[in-house]
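The step that takes the researchers longest sounds almost clerical: writing a folded protein down as plain text. The outcome of that step, for a single protein, is printed below.
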Amino acid sequence: MISTPKSTLFPTLTLLLSLPILCFYIAPRILPPRQITITLPDELDDLSLFHKAIAMDSSNFSHRHHHRLPSAKSHLSTAIRRPKIAFLFLTNSQLHFSPLWELFFSNVSHKQYNIYIHADPFVKIPPFQGIFKSRVIPSKRTQRSSPTLISAARRLLATAMLDDPSNAYFALISQHCIPLHSFSYFYNFLFDLGRLSVTDFEFSSYIEILDNEPTLWDRYNARGENVMLPEVGFEEFRVGSQFFVLTRKHALKVIKDRKLWRKFKLPCLNLDSCYPEEHYFPTLLSMQDPNKCTQFTLTNVNWTGSVNGHPHTYHPSELSPQLIYNLRESNSSYSHMFARKFSPDCLNPLMEIAESVIFKD
């Protein structure tokens, strides 16, 4: 029988006892995070919600068109007497900039907007206050690089559609977003009837749609090579920002979709190239109604010096009136309306220039 020297017994036992602790701290840094799967009950919950929203929208559509008037302006007054913007906040933390958003909505009629919040129930978040109180919708767990973020956005769209038929535009916002203009400026921009023709009563959606990104092939095959076929060919695959402003028509297309969702809800094998929420919405709308999508986003995101797929984060030392003016600039003929991403300690400096710069259009 081979005996273990007493001098080595204690270190050996210590190492064995330490292994579970070491694995607990080291494994998450080495192994990729386990992807959340969308369960059948969650899927059925969402389908039930979508069906209700689709049925209600169809009923309202028939009623509106029964009384349709010939001109675009009168059609607007009949179809949506007081058009509203639904602000959809998708978050897994508290809304750090809620005081700034409160100021954004101040002195604005509630007949012009609604607020809906999808807050991850698996994260401890302090109760929302002010105009955000009681605006949290039934939410489910979310995770980066997983289709749960698509589900959350679709859940917000369907809830807002079902809640108020007057919601005509749907703006998806993150907890790290700030407004760059006043509410009146944004509202008047979206509902500018001067951009409508008498024969073409349709506003456009503002969603980034890109087809020439250098990482497009890797993103397309993130779930496995050619797994997206036959529903989505590589030539149809698009990418873009996960934050958008959609018309009700396009929101309806999103919650009606089953065909593409079957592919985009599949788990990713290559997490470094997998951003489902940045792929699904641009691809779907590009395939179904490209002419009514501007292909530009209204949310300014700085990807210079991005880290691990995250954009540049602005800190208080970078804040100035000039930064706000620069963030408003876009490659299109219109201004950016929102910007991300800002650290929570930017709140006070932003509040100091809110009235004199941000909301002074």
Remarks:
- The radius of gyration is 24 Å.
- Residues 27-31, 65-79 have pLDDT under 50 and may be disordered.
- The chain has one domain: 40-358.
- The domain at 40-358 is CATH 3.90.550 (Spore Coat Polysaccharide Biosynthesis Protein SpsA; Chain A).
